[in-house]
Amino acid sequence: MKFDGKAALVTGASLGIGRAAAIELAQHGANVAVNYRSSEAEAQEVADEIESLGRKALLLKADVADQAAVEGMVAKTVEAFGSLDLFVSNAAYSDRQSMIDADMAGFHRTIDVTMWGAFYGVRASAMQMIKQGGGGSIVVVSSPHAALAIPDSMAYNMAKAAIDHMMRTAAIELVGHRIRVNAIYPGWIDTPGERKFFTEEQLEAGGKALPWGRLGRPEEIAKGIAFMLSDDAEYMTGSIMSMEGGVMLPWWSNRADGEM
């Protein structure tokens, strides 16, 4: 098994991509710390599934925008599992309004969770991996929003662009410690979080309009995350894996309506 005996921490692991990633890592042998902020019942379901696979699970309630709380999660993971070998920065928050109409509390919350939360997690996990002396692997869940100026998403666009450069900087700073840092671009994925912005009818219609003809599935992204964390990707660091169903292809983004 790819991660037999390894200890992982996944932020935002109660729902969507984080949930799928936590379960995928457990399926490949990892013990997994499941971070959540408010979805306790769903987080418990993830932990139960991990344990049903014969692995250990640890529930960690914390707001990733709180640096001390993130550092505490890392310490609790090591206390429970003996080490921290794999870290997935997945937790995010997004409000969608135009720049001039934006509620600034939501704007700041988006930056605090999506950018600072990712930084706190990468930093704390890297410090622990350096202390252990055996290397490690980190994946940051970024987004096409980092590269595409999607309207009504300025704070989220800014935060995702920032964590891309954070990832690359961390990768070069940590390479001497044999700690790999990479990122992944999920496209439009069918997660509970999308219901904050769209109805079921809008999601169905939107999926059909995508180049691949459907929304992505969290389990698909989880497999990409697991690959990057694994020794199969040992020669990969400072890189971005794009799993977005063709959303960023120029032929699609520039096509006339109705053209294929």
Automatic annotation (TrEMBL):
Key word Oxidoreductase present: yes
GO MF entries: glucose 1-dehydrogenase [NAD(P)+] activity
Group of enzyme by EC: oxidoreductase
Domain of life where this protein originates: Bacteria
Pfam family, one: adh_short_C2
EC number(s) on file: 1.1.1.47
Key words, A-Z: Oxidoreductase
InterPro entries (UniProt xref): NAD(P)-bd_dom_sf, Sc_DH/Rdtase_CS, SDR_fam
Family classification: Belongs to the short-chain dehydrogenases/reductases (SDR) family.
Name this protein carries in UniProt: Glucose 1-dehydrogenase 2
Organism of origin: Symmachiella dynata
